[in-house]
Amino acid sequence: MSANLENDQKNRIWQLFLHAEDTFYNRLNFFVIFETLLLGVVSLLFSRPTPAKPLLIGISILGLCSTAAWTFSQARQLDVYHRRREYVSEVIPEYQAVRDRQKKWFLSSMLVLTFIPGLLVILWIVFLIFFIFFL
Question: Domain segments of the chain: what residues?
Answer without folding.
Answer: 2-133
